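BUG: 3D viewer hangs when loading the predicted structure for this chain

Environment: internal workstation, default settings.
Expected: structure renders.
Actual: progress bar stalls at 90%.

Input used:
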Amino acid sequence: MSTLEARYRRLLLAYPRTHRTLYQEEMLGVLLAAARPDQRRPSVPDVLDLVHGALRAWIRDIGRPRPGQWWDALAVVSLLAPVFL
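Structure tokens produced before the viewer hung:
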């Protein structure tokens, strides 16, 4: 693993885990393909873009239900409520 790849991987840790599992390798491939041959550090625009994208991904994930949360309880209640009524 190159130094640049390791630094990009560290920056991608800012994204939510679900987003990383789906898109990390693709994002890393695009970033490495666009890099100069002798580049050792991510460029400032790349860093800003990755941080901006991570913030947007976190904000987008706020409203999504996660397994094991209230969404499952609501499903159970919606099945049992007609029986008791």
